[in-house]
Predict the structure.
Amino acid sequence: MESAVDSATASRAVSASRIDMRMCFLGDSFTLGVGDEGQLGWAGRLVRDHSPEGVAVTYCNLGIRSDTSTGLARRWEAETMPRLRPDRAAGVVLSIGVNDTMPANVAAHPLNRSLANLETIVSGVRRHGWPLLAVGLLPVADPDHTARIRRQDAAFQDWCRDHGVEFCPVFEAMHDSPTWMREVALVDGHHPGPQGYAELTEVLAGQWRAWVASVLKRYCEK
């Protein structure tokens, strides 16, 4: 029978053989997972279900409900710096922009300001040397608001392409998803329930796994 000491030693050996990776998810209520009773959203599901073997991912969800790109541009660095260490594999996942297109915010967030905020965040992340994955915007129940989101998403995608930022498009897939749109309508007009987040996670999973592999490769080559 294995003793408590032997078991603890084995556990430490397994832990020591795993790569310690730190991830910060920057965004708004979609990033936070509002509407999901399990509190995982898409960020938690990606880390739980689609992280590579042999990697221990510590993830920090820095989503704030109702946050705009201006709010995130102001806060991201102070919140990310203490959580990502230079001697550990690390990365940043960014998802922002839907709140810029809300009726109450749209006058203060013309597209050029939203893009300037995106540039501020991306430039700062790059200055620190952290790999970055940008996740596209998501549709809501209101057709007029969704049309504004679609335009914002297209502009963000074009900007990321032109500036060499990896971008994971999700808008059209979720707009075409009966599950996402049904749950959004049932929950609060903006956020899905667990099945919607689960479906979004599957849309993101392949690109997430490839991106995490590139983060690991970059870390191991240092």
Strands lie at 19-27, 55-63, 89-95, 132-135, 166-168. The two ends are 42 Å apart (CA to CA). The first strand starts at residue 19 and ends at 27.
